């Protein structure tokens, strides 16, 4: 079952209003972006490559400043909450360090001793199915396993919000399906808020309670789709319900791109 959170009644964890981003090169990545991310939801940002999805995610994380507009965290003012986990497109692991050290890194930077962090690192690795690989080096792992290490590193701080920037895009389909299932299980278990960036209609529908469709650059919200599926498993992936949601999402994405072309 999906999380029982009533999204319409849930207080946003972060709100973006009128957010724009112009890079030094003069490229406008985002313009007039309005978005509420609700507590406990699984939200996907869906759009074509280059539409500003990753830029929006980095602004939410505080890794990039908006050129205009506001980002507000209720209860925390305009600055981001501290308990954010971020998973990048690439695992970005330290190749010279063992898996344990890679996952321990955020706690080390926070001043937690290795001794005190050991149980939390072990728990994070167990949650992603890598409990027996703490002493391995990244080069000894498959691409999917390296991404699991990256997810464990994001989870080790027990974040309130998990931000994921196309983490499975480079993986084969079988590995991607498995990681999608594992991510859903983690979301249910930890009851965290997930914002997931993807350009895959099929992945966004499978994972999300809500899909936000973005227009081509400069990115803004074109439409939102609610995915009210009761289950997220192999039977859902082959169901008429799933196919119907994918069709609606595909049509919305096509309309967003057509609208952008007409405005150009």
Q: Which terms summarize this structure?
A:
38% helix; 264 residues; 6-stranded mixed β-sheet; globular; alpha/beta; 9 strands; 22% strand; 8 helices; Rossmann fold; 3-stranded antiparallel β-sheet
Oligomer state equals single chain
Order the strands across the largest sheet as they lie in space. 5-6-7-3-8-9
Mean pLDDT score, rounded? 90
Name the overall outline.
globular
Helix content: 25-40%
Number of domains: 2
- Elements, N to C (H/E): EEEHEEHHHEHEHEEHH
CATH architecture label name of the largest domain: 3-Layer(aba) Sandwich
- Can you tell me the residue ranges where pLDDT is under 50 for at least 5 consecutive residues? 1-8
Within CATH, the superfamily of the largest domain carries the name P-loop containing nucleotide triphosphate hydrolases
Q: Determine the strand fraction and express it as a percent band.
A: 15-25%
CATH topology of the largest domain: Rossmann fold
Distance between the termini: 43 Å
Individual helix count: 8
Secondary-structure content class: alpha/beta
The largest pleated sheet is described as:
6 strands, mixed
């Amino acid at each position: 079952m999906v999380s029982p959170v009533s999204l319409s009644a849930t207080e946003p964890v972060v709100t973006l209003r009128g957010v724009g981003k112009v890079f030094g090169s003069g490229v406008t990545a985002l313009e007039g972006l309005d978005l509420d991310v609700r507590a406990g939801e699984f939200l996907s940002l869906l759009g074509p490559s280059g539409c500003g999805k990753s830029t929006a995610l980095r602004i939410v994380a505080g890794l990039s400043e908006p050129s205009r507009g506001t980002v507000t965290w209720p209860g925390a003012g305009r600055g981001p909450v501290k308990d954010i986990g971020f998973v990048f497109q690439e695992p970005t692991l330290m190749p010279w360090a063992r898996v344990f050290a890679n996952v321990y890194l955020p706690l080390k930077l926070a001043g937690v001793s290795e001794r005190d962090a050991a149980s939390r690192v072990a728990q994070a690795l167990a949650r992603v199915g890598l409990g027996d690989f703490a002493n391995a080096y990244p080069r000894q792992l498959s691409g999917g396993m390296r991404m699991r290490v990256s997810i464990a590193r994001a989870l080790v701080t027990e974040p309130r919000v998990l931000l994921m920037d196309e983490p499975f895009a480079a993986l084969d389909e079988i590995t991607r399906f498995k990681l999608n299932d594992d991510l859903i299980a983690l979301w249910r278990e930890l009851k965290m808020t997930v914002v997931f960036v993807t350009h895959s209609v099929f992945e966004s529908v499978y994972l999300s309670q809500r899909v936000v469709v973005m227009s081509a650059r400069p990115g803004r919200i074109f439409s939102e789709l609610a995915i009210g599926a009761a289950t997220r498993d192999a039977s859902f992936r082959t169901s008429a319900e799933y196919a119907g949601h994918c069709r609606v999402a595909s049509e919305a994405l096509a309309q967003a791109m057509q609208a952008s072309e007409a405005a150009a």
